[in-house]
Amino acid sequence: MARLSLTHFLIRCERTSGMDANLRLLLETVARAVKTISHAVGHGALGGVLGSAQTSNVQGETQKKLDIIANQMLIEANEWGGTLAAMASEEMDQPVGIPVAYPRGDYLLLFDPLDGSSNIDVNVSIGTIFSVLRAHDPKAEEAAFLQPGTSQVAAGYAVYGPQTQFVITVGQGVHEFTLDKDTGSFLLTRENLRIPAQTQEFAINMSNMRHWEAPVRRYIDECLAGADGPRGKDFNMRWVASMVSDVHRIMQRGGIFLYPRDRREPGKPGKLRLMYEANPMALLIEQAGGAASNGTQRILDIQPTSLHQRVAVVLGSREEVEYVARLSA
Ligand code: AHG
Ligand code: MN
Ligand code: MN
After folding, report:
1. Contact 98, 119 (CB under 8 A)
2. For labelling alongside 154, which of 16, 38, 174, 278 has CA 20 to 30 A away?
């Protein structure tokens, strides 16, 4: 039997669950942008897209050429379709509105255009992460975006790896589409992904160990002690250093991902950004039966105070995330 295309799948959602037609259009437009990004990523050195752009973003991080190219592709694909009031991105200090020449819609789109910067130039999987909110405030300035993750109406990511995949939720499970590069269509390859509640695989940047706070240190010590320690089982470790890829692996076979706050910069609660990294991933993980916290609090319940704020992240297999929360209490 022929596989369902993304378009067909979304039309089915519209008919069976009353999903708004504009949300369908928006998701299709994001998917179209993702295809152009996938194309650019695939050209690599041959397309002249690798290397540094010699600029910095609002967070002081050096931008890669592909960070900027992907950001531009998402803006250009989404600004004219009439579904959005504004967009915000890791690579832009302030949100961008919709040019007056184009129709305005009711949604806000947030994205991390290119996730996994350190892997861009070395041909390791990278991705795009996005989150969709409703625009309640007609001005659609920064304040309009400051809604907790529970308010997201859709979220997803694309992973540019051996295959390009697009994984989305509209609040009714998580579904995976794979790009058929012959026809240019995203086709449904897994419906209703479920993350096993238990795991023996963790993902953390171990080089930060000496900076961790006591509960994270204890948790990883217990994992490393394996069958001889209090957990009574051996653990394996994986760290791709592209959040999209680490989360995608957890979506397929379970696991726990941690990017904790540490003692280097006490004022900085972790590395990852709440609005366009942690919130969309937390919604996807919860929709697949997993859990996502900052160690002690559910990520989706955090009331944001600024567009680029950072947050500690512990997500993945539910029982394992709950175990870390008990150590942190
Ligand atoms: P980005 O490339 O969008 O700045 O995000 C990179 C993030 C995330 O993808 C990954 O999990 C983490 O940074 C890797 O951090 P380390 O370099 O500390 O391993
Ligand atoms: Mn990122
Ligand atoms: Mn990024």
Report:
1. no
2. 38
Distance CA 48, CA 8 (A): 35
Ligand 3 centroid vs 316 CA: distance in angstroms? Answer: 21
- Could you tell me if the CB of 205 is within 6 A of ligand 1? yes
**What's the pLDDT band for 308 if we cut at 50, 70, 90?**
very high
Could you write out the three-class secondary structure of 113-176?
EEECHHHHHHCCCEEEEEEEEECCCCCCCHHHHCCCHHHCCEEEEEEECCCEEEEEECCCCCEE
Ligand that lies nearest to the alpha carbon of residue 126, given by its number in the listed order: 1
Inside any domain, residue 132: yes
119: CA distance to ligand 1 center in Å?
9
User: What residues make up the domain containing 242?
Assistant: 201-328
Q: How many domains does the chain have?
A: 2
Shortest-distance atom of ligand 1 to CA 272? 7
Q: Is 283 left (phi over 0), alpha (psi -120 to 50) or beta?
A: alpha
Model pLDDT, residue 230: 97
How far away, in angstroms, is 62 Cα from ligand 1 center?
13
Q: Which numbered ligand comes closest to the C-alpha of 90?
A: 3
Count CB neighbours of 300 within 10 A. Answer: 18
**What is 5-70 written as a DSSP string?**
BHHHHHHHHHHHH---HHHHHHHHHHHHHHHHHHHHHHHGGGGT--SEEEEE-TTSPEEEHHHHHH
Q: Is residue 236 domain-resident?
A: yes
Is the pLDDT at 138 greater than 80? The verdict is: no
Question: Is 201 a pocket residue for ligand 1 (Cβ < 6 Å)?
Answer: no
For the Cβ of 328 lying below 6 angstroms from any atom of ligand 1, the answer is no
Q: Whole-prediction pTM value?
A: 0.98
* Atom 14, ligand 1: residue with shortest CA distance: 241
Which CA distances in Å does 10 have to 24, 32, 184, 240?
Answer: 6, 14, 17, 31
Residue 286 Cβ inside 6 Å of ligand 1? The answer reads no
Ligand 1 mean position to 117 CA, how many Å? 7
**Do 167 and 263 fall within a single domain?**
no
From the alpha carbon of 114, which atom of ligand 1 is closest? 3
